[in-house]
Specification:
InterPro entries: Tfc4/TFIIIC-102/Sfc4, TPR-like_helical_dom_sf, TPR_rpt. This protein is mainly α and about 475 residues long. The chain has helices at about 5-10, 15-30, 35-40, 65-80, 80-100, 115-125, 140-170, 200-215, 220-235, 240-255, 260-275, 280-290, 295-310, 310-325, 330-345, 350-370, 375-385, 390-400, 420-425, 435-445, 450-460; strands spanning about 105-110, 185-190. Strands 1-2 form a two-stranded antiparallel sheet. The protein is elongated, with a radius of gyration of 38 Å.
Amino acid sequence: MVDNGCDSALERLENNVDARLNLASLLIEDSKEDEAISLLSPPQSFDLQNINKNSDTSKSWWLNGKIKLKLCNIYRAKGMMEDFVNTILPLVQESLYIESLGIKIKVRRRLRDSDLFERVKKVDDRQTDGVFCGSRPMVTAADRLKASRARKLLQKKAALKEEKKAAALAAGLDWHSDDANDESEEEHFKEPPLVNLLKDEEQQDLIIDLCKALESLERYYEALDIIKLVLKSGHNFFPVEKQQQLRSLGAQMAYYTMDSKHGFDCIKHIVQQHPYSITAWNCYYKVLPSKHKDCIPPIVISGHQFTVLSHHQDAAREYLEAYKLLPENPLINLCVGTALINLTLGLRLQNKHQCIAQGLAFLYNNLRLCENSQEALYNIGRACHHVGLVTLAVSYYEKVLAMKEKDHPIPKLPNENWDHAVENHKKDGYCDLRREAAFNLHLIYRKCGAMDLARQVLKDHCTFD
């Protein structure tokens, strides 16, 4: 505890904020952080639930922004992250909300009732003499609008006055009007607890440290709210490097929470800054499906990303999510089937035979949806070849060799124009898979020792003129 001299000084200056701050600084210099914390902490008799009931309590020294800022800096230096967050978070949130709403610290003067009556009278008074006797005066549209607003405000005040009068009479009290028609009233806008929160460099660092602390405590949504408000209100004050740091934190927490409502803009910005980063794109496509839960393309693309990285179990999970939404789509059935077939080659898989059967079931479903097309037959043959079912693979490759597929037009992107040279450069048969099937079939024959059959297949289907 502090010495007797300090105790007596605090007794005389108990509510003096500057005195407590100066004394806390001296204690910190003497490495007495615990005593500084007890000096700046609310008294033990302080009841948080009654703070709004007692106007004197709401103005107590321990609620001062400077006190809380000093206290949170001590917690941060000692690594007490939870106390640090609980102390400064309410002040940061309130200050950012005030900044985001664009509320300025100013005083606005209310109109007196006499001024309101004057505005109404200016429009409603009729001429009593002259040529325009009995007609309304000529007024501008702006004056007419002011008079309309004044009339509504007077009616509202009259109704409120009658309500108070009726309540007082019902309670058996004497009614005394407290009108102050001729007095000017002032309406004060609320001042943020932390002034210049977005402009001061130290407080900018405080916001970043607060977001990191919230992340370490797994309070992601509160951190994302702060990041969103800072990027909205402080983009003109925050340096670019610190904005990038906040966006990186937001993208990371959005990845953890799968909540695109808060962190999608951060992830989108990261992808724009690092377009060749696979990690950035993986994060983008993980969060994007949660933004549009019924949107198939991002789910399928996310599965493709996992396939490229050979994460076949994760790819199968994404493809199955798309299958739930669109079970009769040939491409989705093909993707699920190939992912399960690739998964069977993993060393840790226990039920490989079941996984092969499930993969082939999806490929046969693809065959049905494609009406026994050459490509669907080739895919089944290639899957059987991949897992070592060469007898089945040979039969399907032979079915492919017995068919000839017509060329189909290649889809174009929106607003994409191809010149005639590119279209004429495409050779006939670019949709025909007989050469691919013949080459795979010759590999099977050669591995089995049937060299003559292998050479014959290549001669019949893979010979160029």
